[in-house]
Write a structure and sequence with these properties.
Length: 68
């Protein structure tokens, strides 16, 4: 939960900007986007496996470049 106290002499616009920045830092916006729609467990599993494969492929390509 992000809490922002409006400082004395601070405009509402500045407080809103600080609030948005804190939300970004704490990952609130990413969490909202992630929960925007339901994804079944099988889809989540496929996405995780695809990400792992991408990371392995990148690592292999990076390692092979230095071997040549």
């Amino acid at each position: 939960m992000v809490n922002i106290k409006v400082r004395e002499g601070e405009s509402i616009e500045e407080a809103i900007r600080r609030f948005k920045r804190e939300c970004e830092r704490n990952g609130v916006i990413q969490e909202i986007k992630r929960r925007a729609y339901y994804r079944s467990p099988s889809v989540l599993k496929k996405e995780r496996l695809a990400e792992i494969k991408r990371k392995i492929r990148r690592k292999m390509l990076r390692d092979n470049r230095w071997l040549k």
